[in-house]
């Protein structure tokens, strides 16, 4: 069986070279339709939460997802794409924007988080409102103050586009473009944004950065747990005595969880300013000052932070130096994630 | 290779054998009423138990995972492929064809009642992108907090303090879930499923009961219920709005029908 397929290979190649536009495109699609190892798990990491076996990543599916992610036509007036708020150079966070306009209607006051290693997240959003990565894109798409489209509206536009029709068939086989295919393709892209190649990962730390790492393991790692730099729990880190945003409390309905938010990963944190769910801090030094001397007490506050962390200015600087080693330049510049050519 | 051929042949023959047996089914027909009157969207005015006038502009809900109870107390539930949404049915008063559903592949025999889930079970409520009745494009999916809306009732009432005198109830989510299992006994006469007869179960679903059956609500006090906490009283009412109105057995014509 296999040998016969191999025997066909030269024929395929000749065809590929000789073929004119359409045929060549079809053959390229065929070659791209095989699974790629993009969803691989870095050594020493836990198993991901999102199960790619139900949505195997193929080159064509990933490429389609990348195209959708960067395409402003997904918004009602054609002006905003996912990438407008999730910029690659900022590790897919939104540089300089304290908050993006109302993602949740009523709760329209949140900072766009960086996007990477999403397959490991048990739930999405600052409050964990979304349980499954595949459903995440529905939130911005349908939000009137974000992309403002309806799923139906997006499907009409995509179905009318011959390029998209071909790309969807290449990725998922014959059949109409439906919401499931749109969501699966976007998931193949956002679910394989992987960042695991920082200086920290390569163990290239200076003495001072290693000092920062030791402090980090003592004071921060209970919540920002290695290797993902979060334990995905919902906690209060003392930002407010009375949080304006209910956070996890709105989802769980528990009063004590008012003002608790998902512990964010700190990978690439040096490039994802501003910080916290409402983008209140502009620099990492401000964040460290907060942990040392700005902690506010409340029912939501985590016991580990009560009274603040005993960190002098020197130690705070060492911590910042360590956090800067978590930047993954290869990820920020990976051309496979960039806006595709038209 | 040749070791595989026999089992495959056997399987193919087996499958062919199965499909040759006549497919028996039970049809469920749904009529919406308000008390004793038929439901008409938009223009008809009804009165609830609290004495408030109201009209209905939208009524949609999921009836999921149907199963039939045999006289001996055991159950028949149709089997569907794991990925399919065939066991989920979206009833929409605005779409006549949605008020009819079919339980297929029913073994011949006598059945004494039917059970549904009003809503979507936890497993599917938390699963990824789905199709069919569970396609999020059907407008029954909360995008800001993932999960299905199990039931929507919207309308107008002069007593509503909301803009335009509107009221909107969206039931879904909740811990424990607002989805409710509803068992409807067929009564004295069982449903007979056999080659000659095609049974239809007519359900009457009372929107009035949705407002009053267990926990009476006043539109004046509850013009909106869009979260599990405020919608919980309505979920208990939703379970009480279904009843079997009558049964029907008709000769089954050859070749389906």
Automatic annotation (TrEMBL), chain A:
Modifications after synthesis and translation: Binds 2 heme groups per subunit.
GO cellular component terms, A-Z: periplasmic space
Main localization, broad class: periplasm
Details of cofactor binding: Binds 2 heme groups.
Cofactor(s) required, per the database record: heme
Molecular function terms from GO: cytochrome-c peroxidase activity; electron transfer activity; heme binding; metal ion binding
Entry keyword annotation includes Metal-binding: yes
Domain Cytochrome c residue range list: 60-188, 207-327
Binding-site positions, heme c 1: 82, 85-86
Subcellular location: Periplasm
Heme listed as a keyword: yes
InterPro entries: Cyt_c-like_dom (IPR009056), Cyt_c-like_dom_sf (IPR036909), Cytochrome_c_Peroxidase/MauG (IPR051395), Di-haem_cyt_c_peroxidsae (IPR004852), MauG/Cytc_peroxidase (IPR026259)
Binding site for heme c 2: 220, 223-224
Keyword terms of this UniProt record: Heme, Iron, Metal-binding, Oxidoreductase, Periplasm, Peroxidase, Signal
The name this protein goes by in its record: Cytochrome-c peroxidase
Source organism: Solimonas fluminis
Automatic annotation (TrEMBL), chain B:
Domain of life: Bacteria
Assigned keywords, A-Z: Signal
Residues of the signal peptide: 1-21
InterPro entries per UniProt: MbnP-like_dom (IPR046863)
Keyword match Signal: yes
Domain annotation Copper-binding protein MbnP-like: ranges: 25-226
Record flagged with keyword Signal: yes
Protein name, per record: Copper-binding protein MbnP-like domain-containing protein
Organism per entry: Solimonas fluminis
């Amino acid at each position: 069986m296999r040998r016969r397929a191999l025997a066909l290979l030269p024929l395929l190649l000749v065809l590929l070279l000789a073929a004119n536009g359409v045929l060549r495109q079809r053959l390229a699609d065929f070659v791209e339709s095989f699974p790629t190892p993009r969803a691989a798990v870095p050594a020493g990491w836990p198993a991901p939460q999102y199960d790619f076996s139900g949505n195997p990543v193929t080159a064509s599916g990933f490429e389609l997802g990348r195209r959708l992610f960067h395409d402003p036509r997904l918004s009602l007036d054609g002006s905003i794409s996912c990438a407008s708020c999730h910029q690659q150079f900022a590790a897919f966070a939104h540089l300089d924007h304290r908050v993006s306009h109302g993602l949740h209607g009523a709760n329209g006051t949140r900072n766009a988080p960086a996007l990477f290693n999403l397959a490991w997240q048990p739930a999405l959003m600052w409050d964990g409102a979304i349980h499954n990565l595949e459903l995440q894109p529905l939130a911005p798409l349908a939000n009137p103050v974000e992309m403002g489209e309806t799923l139906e509206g997006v499907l009409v536009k995509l179905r009318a586009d011959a390029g998209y029709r071909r790309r969807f068939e290449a990725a998922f086989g014959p059949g109409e473009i439906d919401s499931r295919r749109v969501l699966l393709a976007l998931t193949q892209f956002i679910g394989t944004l992987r960042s695991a190649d920082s200086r920290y990962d390569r163990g290239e730390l200076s003495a001072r950065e290693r000092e920062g790492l030791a402090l980090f393991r003592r004071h921060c790692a209970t919540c920002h747990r290695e290797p993902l730099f979060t334990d995905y729990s919902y906690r209060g880190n003392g930002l407010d005595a009375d949080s304006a945003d209910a956070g996890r409390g709105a989802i769980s309905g528990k009063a004590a969880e008012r003002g608790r938010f998902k512990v964010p990963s700190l990978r690439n944190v040096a490039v994802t300013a501003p910080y916290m769910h409402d983008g209140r801090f502009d620099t990492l030094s401000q964040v460290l000052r907060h942990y040392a001397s700005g902690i506010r007490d409340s029912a939501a506050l985590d016991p580990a932070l009560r009274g603040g962390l005993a960190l002098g200015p020197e130690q705070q600087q060492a911590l910042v130096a360590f956090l800067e080693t978590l930047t993954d330049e290869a990820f920020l510049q990976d051309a496979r994630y960039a806006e595709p050519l038209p | 290779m040749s070791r595989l051929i026999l089992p495959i042949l056997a399987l193919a023959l087996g499958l062919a054998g199965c499909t040759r047996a006549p497919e028996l089914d039970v049809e469920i027909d749904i009529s919406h009423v308000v008390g004793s009157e038929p439901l008409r969207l938009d223009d008809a005015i009804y009165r609830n138990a609290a004495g408030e006038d109201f009209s209905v502009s939208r009524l949609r809900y999921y009836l999921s995972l149907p199963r039939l109870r045999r006289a001996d107390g055991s159950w028949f539930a149709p089997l569907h492929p794991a990925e399919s949404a065939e066991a989920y049915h979206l009833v929409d008063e605005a779409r006549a064809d949605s008020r009819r559903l079919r339980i297929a592949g029913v073994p011949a025999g006598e059945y004494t009642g039917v059970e549904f889930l009003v809503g979507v079970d936890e497993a599917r409520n938390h699963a990824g992108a789905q199709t069919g009745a569970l396609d999020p494009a059907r407008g029954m999916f909360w995008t800001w907090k993932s999960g299905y809306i199990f039931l929507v009732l919207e309308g107008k009432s002069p007593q509503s303090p909301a803009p335009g005198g509107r009221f909107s109830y969206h039931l879904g989510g909740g811990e424990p879930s607002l989805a409710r299992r509803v068992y409807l006994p067929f009564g004295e006469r069982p449903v007979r499923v056999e080659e000659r007869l095609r049974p239809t179960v007519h359900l009457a679903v009372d929107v009035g009961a949705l407002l009053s059956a267990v926990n009476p609500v006043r539109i004046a006090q509850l013009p909106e219920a869009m979260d599990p906490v405020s919608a919980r009283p309505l979920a208990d009412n939703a379970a009480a709005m279904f009843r079997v109105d009558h049964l029907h057995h008709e000769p089954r014509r050859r070749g389906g029908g």
